[in-house]
Structure formats: C-alpha cells, structure tokens
Task: structure prediction
Amino acid sequence: MLNKIYPNLIDIPQNLIIDKSIEQNTTLLNGKLVKLETDLQDVISPIAIKHGTELKSIRLGSHPLMNHQQAIEALNSTSSAFNGDTWKNKSSNYRIKCVKEFLDNFSKLKDSVVKMLIWENCKPLQEAENEFQRTIEYIEQSIEEYKKIESQTNIQNYSGFSGKILNTPIGIVISMGPSNYPIYESYSLCIPALLIGNTVLMKIPRYGSLLHNQIIELLQSSFPKGVINVIYGKNEDTINPIMQTGEIDMLAYMGSNMFVEPLILSHPKPYRIKKLLGLDAKNPAIVLKDCDLDYIVKEIVLGALAFNGQRCAAIKIIFAHSKIYDKLVEEIKNEIEKQIIGMPWTEDVRITPIFDKNRILYLKTLFEDAMNKGAINNTTDGGKINHTFFYPTLLSNVNSSMRIYTEEQFGPIVPIVRFDDIKEPLEYVQNSEFGQQISIFGNNSKEISKLASFLQYQCGRVNINTKCQRGPDIFPFTGKKSSGMGELSINSTLKEFIAHSVVAGKENDITLSTLERI
Ligand code: G3H
Result:
C-alpha cells in the first residue's frame, strides 16, 4: 500500500529518465584518463520503480574499486607534479586560467550532474540545482579572493628588517568530499587547494560517484599532468596505503569521524599532517518560553528535515521550555505531517529515499531504543520503513538515557526534550562531544545575547531564530571539539591551503632589490 510512493516508469519526467548506464572504468591518473584493470562496484539507485506489485531496483552503472598499486601510482604522480615545476612555480594567473577553463566547462554540465545527484543521492531537484549553482559561485568567488590575497604580497619593513611574506602551498593534499554534498563539498575543497599551488589526490565519495564521470574529464583537460589525480574505491585499499607512505602533507576531509580517524592514524607521523576537517555534529535548537511559535515551527522543521536531515548542520535535537513544550510538539507534528514525501522530482518534496541503506537500519535501532525507554512517537508513520524511505518521526519525552539524545542520527528523526531550567540544555551543550552549531529561538534579545555569549565558546556558530546552516559561504564554517578542525569559507579555505614562507633580511639595498625580484 505504502508503495504508491514509488513511481511507475511513466511517472518519471522525460528529461530525468536514465536511458543508459554509466560504466565508469577509467580514472584520471598522471594526466590521462586511464582504463583500470580492477574490480567494479555496481551503483544502484535508492529510487526503485514499480513493476506491477513489485519494486524493481535501478542499476545506474558502476565505478572502479582501485587497488593498492593504482592508489600508489596516483600518489607518485601527484608527488612528482608537486616536486616538479608544473604547478607551484607557475604564476597565480596561470593557475587561475586553468581553474577558469575548468569552471567554464563545468557550468555546461548542469543538467547531467543534477540528474545523477537525483538518482544517486536522491537530493530534491531544487536542492540539487542549488548545490550545482553554489559550487560555481564558490569557485568564482574563490578566484576573486585569491587575487586579493596575492595582491597583498608586498615588501614590509619593520624594526630594521625588510621581508616578503609569501603564500606557498602546503604540499600534497588529499581532498575528500562527503556523500550528502558530493559536488559542492568536493570541489569547494580541491579547487582552492589547487589555486594556491598544492597538488591534489581527490577521493570520490562513496555515494554520488557517477556524477563525477564527466567532471574528471574536465579536470584532465584543464590542469597539467599529475596536478590532480582521482581515486575511486575503498579507503582501506586506497587512502590508507597512501597515508602509510608518509608523503601526504594535508588532509582536507568532510564526512564522518568514524572514517577519518583510521586515515590519520595510518600516517607514520600523524602530527605533521595539516588537517582541515568538517565532521559529525549534534546541533541543538533551544526554544525559549517566550517565542513566536507560528514563525519558528517551519524554521525548526526545515532545519531538522531538509534533505531528510542528511546535513551535518541539521538541527538534531530540540530542547523546549516546559511552558511551550506540549504546544510545540503538537505544532511540529502538524508541520511534519504536511511535509511532502516523494521522489526528488516531486514538487516541493522534503522527504526522499535515503541514499545509504545502512543508515535506514541505524535509524530503526535509534527509534526502537528510544521507544523502549519511554519516548512517544507523535507522527502517523513515525519509525516506519518503506524500502528506502524512513518516514519522518517526531519523538517527544526524550531523555538522556536514550541513544538519540547524544548520537547523530543524520536522518529524519526529530527528538524533542523538555526543560524547566535553561541550565539543562546549556549543560548538554557543554558536555557534548560535538560543537558545530546551535539555534536559539526566542523573542528576548537580552536573554538570547546572554546565551550567545556563553555558547560562542562551545559552538562554531550560534543562530538566532534561524536554523543551523553553513551559508552564506562568506561566514566561517567551523566546529569545536569533535565537529571539525580549521575553517571553511570562501576566504578562509584558501588560507588553510597556504603555508607562509618569509624571505627577509636587514633593511639595505641588496635585501630590497632581492625582494623586488621575488
Ligand atoms: O553537510 C554539511 C552542511 O550541512 C552543509 O551546509 O547544509 O547548511 O548548506 P548546509
């Protein structure tokens, strides 16, 4: 019965029909698109199609599972390109020219990339288009920002010394974007790294791999040999052995803490890898007793359920003052029941299939654990699974004995906790392993500012009557404790990929004329 949610072939918009599978058996290796003699991984869409009373899975194609030897080949190529004179020694204008060429051609791939983002990751059409556009804007603005940074490299004279502070690259960078933003968060890491003169090993995310297929052709045609190499496959066969060589200088990674730890520990000298990390989060929303429920309910539900809650910056637990708790539960429930559940192309859809099958089982265990410990399921289909759907679930009566209280669900479960004393949510934040963001909902600016003054030391961003989010991309996106390391924004990402070097001497004619030549 619930399967009415899945489409018949005829229901799929004509422009989104998959007419041919993508059998990706090549990668970008040492400047060439090389056919790999290796195992291939089938890519199956989370979207199934109805055939009578049956659901039939859609095979989208396959991608390579690179092996140890191929991974080391990619490393050797990236390392030669860094040590040679093909990239870091070129002018910044040359590197900008390469990035612009890449970007011009990338912009033309919108339809095919968005289509695969829908089929592989089930991102709603509008959000998939936004992700693509945001990537373009991020790269465009990074180019402008890089020009500004370079223009500030002037001779400086202090206390009898003259010197030039130079923006040199860190070295060989591994860049790994996540499956929930496989385009935006992959290219907003690797392109700034390249602009600065680093060379990059780019690891393709586990889900959302085929959508890179045409993009890597552009990387091949836009950048010199070895400057960027592309890795497909399992970390244990590829990134771990690369790390074990000790040749990696920097890890730029967006994803789960669980996967990053073994990578870092594989490096023989883990202390010397620079890390730029966007990791797990358990962002709370605190709802104060005096707030305007009509306005905030929509914002909270959007914050918790956009893209099924599969955003690192999603609101993952709500603390509501007991004075408004029951009313808030009722209104959030009503708002959740209004959310459209369907295919990524369904108009105004909010809940789509979950791209990671294991996540669905994990959500079920969190749900059952909470229910066994006294949580109340408020939503009609809460806790139900239908093939790749997990129905949006509002759990009230949540307390600290439940796993959902501390574990990051990364899915459409919305837990809500009652508090009487503001100390309770503040202690939660202080004791939390994570510290990415928080949202405060209320009308009393004096009270909110007092809370924000405390919370600024706990989280990377305090949102006022607004959902947690990364954008606008000019703001630093960062996390404290286990939520991240380093800072992402158009300006700060570039700076993360820079290692300053200084050329300086006593202030005299020889020093000055030397510096003028650099
Ligand atoms: O998954 C990472 C972040 O959620 C990206 O930022 O979803 O606020 O745009 P955003």
Notes: Residues 283-479 form a domain with the Aldehyde Dehydrogenase; Chain A, domain 2 fold (CATH 3.40.309.10).
